[in-house]
Amino acid sequence: MKEKRHTSAEEIYEICNCPRLGEEAPDFDIETTYGKMNFADFCKDSWVVLFSHPADFTPVCTTEFMAFADNQEEFDKRNTKLIGLSVDSVYSHIAWVKNIEEKFDVKIKFPIIADIPMEVSYLYSMIHPSVSDVHPVRSIFIIDPNRIIRTMIYYPSSVGRNIKEILRMIDALQVVDKENVATPVDWKPGDDVIIPPPNTIKEAEERKHQEHGECKEWYLCKTGV
């Protein structure tokens, strides 16, 4: 009997072409509400939040877009660009943006990708057939200035995203990069951070005598930044 061969995790990723944390965000050329765009150029020298929504003129998506727009200055402070995506046309996007401004007095200042051929949606694994094979799910990709994917979050269509959590995630990633630390559960700006754990017995022993920070145990030490 022929031995059954199991598909490896690497082969599965190659088959589905799934994006992965720590890898370069796939590049693409696409039409947006700000004209034709190359994604790599858009990402240059800044953080980026790429987010998809199932469709224009839908209630949950409308509340999300208004929340992103209301927090535009907060994203700007963090050198972070926003860019939305759905499989609607650029004309639908424009009409929706104008409707939001007219009806809710909220101006959308970030571009929206018109992914009618669903190329970007498939490239970033935004199409989940068990949910819909014609609309992307709610997904979030936080991408750093080196165009590396640092965060991926997926939401069901019936649950809106938490913009404060997205901002908190960006704050945490930027502190981690700047200070070479980690952040504990529920961390927020101003809280203590975690010092990377020691790699040798000697370093673990030295932790007991360090003069800065707070050590609950040799592998869990916190300090301020």
Characterize the structure shown.
With 225 residues, the chain is an alpha+beta fold. The protein folds into two domains: 21-161, 3-Layer(aba) Sandwich (Glutaredoxin), CATH 3.40.30.10; 180-225, Antioxidant, Horf6, Chain A, domain2 (Antioxidant, Horf6, Chain A, domain 2). The protein is built from eight helices and ten strands. It has a five-stranded mixed β-sheet with strand order 5-4-3-6-7. Strands 8-10-9 form a three-stranded antiparallel β-sheet, with no helix packed on it. Strands 1-2 form a two-stranded antiparallel sheet. β6 (138-143) and β7 form a beta hairpin. The longest helix is centred in the C-terminal third of the chain and has 17 residues, at 163-179. It is elongated, with a radius of gyration of 21 Å. The protein starts with 8 loop residues before the first helix and ends with a strand. The relative contact order is 0.14. The mean pLDDT is 90.
Q: Concise description?
A:
By secondary structure, the protein is an alpha+beta fold. The chain has helices at 9-16, 39-43, 59-70, 72-77, 90-104, 119-123, 163-179, 201-207, and strands spanning 29-32, 35-38, 47-52, 80-86, 112-114, 138-143, 149-155, 193-194, 214-217, 220-223. The mean pLDDT is 90.
